[in-house]
């Protein structure tokens, strides 16, 4: 397939820099696509109002990969038990993933704690999606990465105050506030911005918890002889070298809308899709201004 690099995208911080590929027949025409070797997404929490299904669907449709890892908390069974919430957009996400599986993408699903019901089905293949308790992924440059959700370490991490919040009403309230704020932003023509992700960076306790979690997880990966670990769970995207192990967290789709990707040469990158769309909106605004001035 003839590939060309899109002009102007490489300069944007944390936005995709992948090879541009031609549109495969099974996707909507005219939608440009970024191609990766591997994509990891987790903590999409489908079945909750906090899920940014619109941006997630946009990301899935704008990208293509050989292997797609779903790293847990994809469907939120805890919230669904409290009350059924399943808008059409959430169906679209599921349908899009199934379509990818059908058209040659290897889809591997590692369940998390919010979708632990699926843990009873590991070893099975559901609609082309392989359910596994954890996985070892070998990168194009030969590194072995352990892939798991991360709640396995909840009992080990001492500064678990922030984590306790994750399943808590305070967190739900924060996401609600985030939704109201972004509703107002949208009305004013402003793109999505995560209040929750912003606050988490500011709160010292959360920062301390996140770094202890990362160290515990990296230590476990080292003991298992892996070169790196990919997880989710704490809703905080990160690439960090901890001793001999590279720690990767693909983030989430209720706060920051991030994914982890592997390029064809094994280079890894966090894609902040909300930021990518924000940057695009800014560019479009600047262009309009320029045109108006001309
Ligand atoms: Mn989780």
How does this structure look, described?
The protein has a single domain, classed as Purple Acid Phosphatase, chain A, domain 2, CATH 3.60.21.10. The chain has helices spanning about 55-60, 75-80, 90-100, 160-165, 170-185, 195-200, 205-225, 275-294, and strands at about 20, 35-40, 65-70, 105-110, 125, 130, 135-140, 145, 230, 240, 245-250, 260, 270. It has about 290 residues and is α/β, with parallel strands linked by helices. The chain is built from eight helices and 13 strands. The model is unreliable at about 1-15 and about 20-30 (pLDDT under 50). Helix 1 (about 55-60) packs parallel to helix 3 (about 90-100). The radius of gyration is 19 Å and the shape is globular. The N and C termini lie far apart (about 40 Å). Bound molecules: manganese (II) ion. Manganese (II) ion binds next to loops. Manganese (II) ion binds near residues 72, 113, 114, 151 and 233.
Annotate the secondary structure layout.
Blueprint: E1 19-21, E2 33-41, H1 53-62, E3 63-70, H2 77-82, H3 88-102, E4 106-109, E5 125-126, E6 129-131, E7 135-138, E8 144-147, H4 161-166, H5 169-187, H6 195-202, H7 204-223, E9 228-231, E10 238-242, E11 245-249, E12 258-262, E13 268-272, H8 273-293
Parallel strand pairs: 2-3, 3-4, 4-6, 8-9, 9-11
Antiparallel strand pairs: 1-2, 2-12, 5-6, 7-8, 10-11, 12-13
Bound molecules: manganese (II) ion (MN).
């Amino acid at each position: 397939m003839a590939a060309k690099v899109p002009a102007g995208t490489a300069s944007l911080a944390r936005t995709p820099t992948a090879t541009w590929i031609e549109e495969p027949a099974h996707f909507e025409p005219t939608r440009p696509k970024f191609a990766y070797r591997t994509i990891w997404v987790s903590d999409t929490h489908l079945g909750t109002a906090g899920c940014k299904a619109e941006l997630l669907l946009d990301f899935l449709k704008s990208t293509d990969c050989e292997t797609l890892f779903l790293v847990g908390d994809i469907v939120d069974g805890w919230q669904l038990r409290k009350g059924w919430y399943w808008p059409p957009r959430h169906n679209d996400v599921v349908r899009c993933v199934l379509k990818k599986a059908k058209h040659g993408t290897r889809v591997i699903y590692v369940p998390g704690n919010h979708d632990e019901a699926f843990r009873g089905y590991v070893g099975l293949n559901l609609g082309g999606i392989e359910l596994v308790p954890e996985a070892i992924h070998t990168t194009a440059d030969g590194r072995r990465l352990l892939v798991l959700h991360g709640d396995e370490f909840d009992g080990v991490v001492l500064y678990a105050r922030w984590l306790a919040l994750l399943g808590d009403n305070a967190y739900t309230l924060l996401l609600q506030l985030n939704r109201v704020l972004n509703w107002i932003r949208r009305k004013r023509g402003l793109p999505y911005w995560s209040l929750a992700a912003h606050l988490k960076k500011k709160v010292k306790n959360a920062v301390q918890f996140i770094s202890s979690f990362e160290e515990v997880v990296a230590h476990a990966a080292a003991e298992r002889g892996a070169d790196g670990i990919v997880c989710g769970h704490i809703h905080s995207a990160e690439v960090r070298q901890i001793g001999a192990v590279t720690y990767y967290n693909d983030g989430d789709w209720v706060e920051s809308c991030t994914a982890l990707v592997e390029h064809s040469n094994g280079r890894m990158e966090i894609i902040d899709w909300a930021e990518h769309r924000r940057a695009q909106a800014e560019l479009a605004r600047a262009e309009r201004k320029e045109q108006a001035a001309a």
